[in-house]
Fold this sequence. Notes:
alpha+beta
Amino acid sequence: xxxxxxxxxxxxxxxxxxxxxxxxxxxxxxxxxxxxxxxxxxxxxxxxxxxxxxxxxxxxxxxxxxxxxxxxxxxxxxxxxxxxxxxxxxxxxxxxxxxxxxxxxxxxxxxxxxxxxxxxxxxxxxxxxxxxxxxxxxxxxxxxxxxxxxxxxxxxxxxxxxxxxxxxxxxxxxxxxxxxxxxxxxxxxxxxxxxxxxxxxxxxxxxxxxxxxxxxxxxxxxxxxxxxxxxxxxxxxxxxxxxxxxxxxxxxxxxxxxxxxxxxxxxxxxxxxxxxxxxxxxxxxxxxxxxxxxxxxxxxxxxxxxxxxxxxxxxxxxxxxxxxxxxxxxxxxxxxxxxxxxxxxxxxxxxxxxxxxxxxxxxxxxxxxx
Length: 370
């Protein structure tokens, strides 16, 4: 058998080598990026996931419906994991926070499991869907139990807690963080409220017992943004729709049945101001809560102390003045001897016989009585 070293390999071999080289390069570049939480890798193999997609990159066409993919990106979803179990397709959306996962699950009809949203093939038989969902839930919760706890991780977004509770239809609450999610509020006119970066929206439907049909609360990052949004949404105001600004919140009440009760519900929406220190906060001074009786007792003690000080100061000044005046009078008297003195504008007449005035004619002194 002869070997021809200078013979060029077939062209399809060259193309295959180039493809393998490109695949190896891409695999090396992407292989270092993994879905991790608190340093722990997401259990892709344990959950039977066969496709993990990074949503911040360009995805192949047909992975998700276009609108659903953009809504997921709007909520900050970084990873989308897809798999199949018992012939049932499922998807896991990895959100940046528990609140974002809660909002996304309500919009796309999934189940929130921590910061992950689980969706199961909707057209599959209900029994199989329940079995697959339970299996995935158990393994995902077991992995999440190994993560360090995060303070306030189960709290729902603030704007959701501001929705009026009385007569609210359960399960109608929705949460969005952008224009695409806000568009799911079909009763609200399109583009009625600006969706600036950092804003959030929550809305719900209400029963006939409420003075309105729908309520939407929009949160903006600054009061200036809220003021601009209020000006842009003035076109919504009518006899059936009320709109007001409460701090950084914009409250929209639609389908008004009772204007007075609707206005009262709007005024109960309070904006909670939060102060965030750039550095370490100063030491907190302990100021125990005092009752009204304690305040009255404190004021009474303060008034008694002031009155006591005034009385003691006045008595001291009187005593000091008396002692000083008596001493001065005594000093003047001793210095004058038996002669004439005029202390304190008083006149003393010495009428002793041996000290009588000489006769007027024998004296050279002219007397005033002459």
